[in-house]
């Protein structure tokens, strides 16, 4: 396939005979309408694309005014429900394609795969309803910029949105009963580096039509950017936990030193541990409130989120991690008091590496924001060794879009972190951390627990741990005096006779 794919790419590029005819656009023609598909064929195409210099894709030629549409106006352009692909075929899923407009101006090629044969999907103005937006001419030829998938997740009519791909390498999903929240990406490169972040993007999709009554949607995606080409395979199974198996093969054009695998991004504006002076009737505003890690040594870590005044980067060094994820642990509606956003229904996402990922670190970035529209929390796996130019690098992982991860620590879990002004004024702070476990309802089973608190910089005092049986919690309070430090790392775990009885609470205090 490699030689025939390269020949097809070359021929297509010559036929287009235009500066915008990128190798990737030509590659899409090498596996297009009427041709059989195989993962090997797609890998061969991705490999050949990576050997050519990167050329940015041509932006879509938009109808008048579409580039200035507000997001609310853009959302009025809706794929007609009766035109959704596979509607009425009992395939378990239906597809709706997304038009250009607003900030979504980069075309993507979309193909479906039916009985192993590729079928190109092309724009028709009749596919869409336009609301108050001026429709394009009837014969307009416009690109798609992504797609949505629908299934019978909460209702039997199959009208529940379960998967969205649109913009760079962003995608999102959810589980039964949830609302859309945090975003995943295919890849992150050079985040917070001096040379600036690079944004790889999915340029082409091949979506397999499920069999009758299907419960799995398989999507192949070709990713490209200045530094790397990649091929992805997503297998999505919606349910009480929506599971997405991801297979990735990357073909770097340069040595990739700062790579983010299985990246997640979410919003954290404020919560009881960090209100940041928020003058808001709501109790909290966030997609997620913590990072959980199950590291290669078997330790469970919980790191509450912050909205800092300056960029904060935290690295959790590990080898062959068992899992990590951004979680929304607080599921009480009255914790947020927002009947529109329903933050308590936002998904948690747990990443389960498949196979050995070697040495590296879970990296967390917390970026200052002053509104809830910007996603300021980033978490991903960063390999210790650079991904070499010219080589092929494969990874696999399982995403769990869930209410809580399928794997949970057999220990007490942190259910609340609160901070406030400490005694003595100045920068002193008081902390309150609640650990929860069923055994905490029985004082006899909870005897001998001790809070073990350590700190880097600053000074802690008045450490007190108390069992609250009626609430099944063990509450730890303490005071922190940062002294001259502008950053203090705190570590807290409950122990009995030197053995951990809780997950490890980690916290970074900054002014």
TrEMBL record:
Gene3D superfamilies, per database record: 2.70.98.10, Immunoglobulins (2.60.40.10)
Q: Where located? A: Periplasm
Q: Name one GO cellular component term.
A: outer membrane-bounded periplasmic space
Q: In this record, what's one Pfam family?
A: MdoG
Subcellular location, principal: periplasm
Which keywords fit this entry according to its UniProt record?
Periplasm
Any idea where the Glucan biosynthesis periplasmic MdoG C-terminal domain is?
39-509
Q: In which pathway does it act?
A: Glycan metabolism; osmoregulated periplasmic glucan (OPG) biosynthesis
Kindly indicate whether the keyword Mitochondrion belongs to this entry. Answer: no
Example GO biological process: beta-glucan biosynthetic process
One GO MF term:
carbohydrate binding
* Family membership noted in the UniProt record: Belongs to the OpgD/OpgG family.
The entry's protein name is Glucan biosynthesis protein
Q: What are the top taxonomic ranks of the organism?
A: Bacteria, Pseudomonadati, Pseudomonadota, Alphaproteobacteria, Hyphomicrobiales
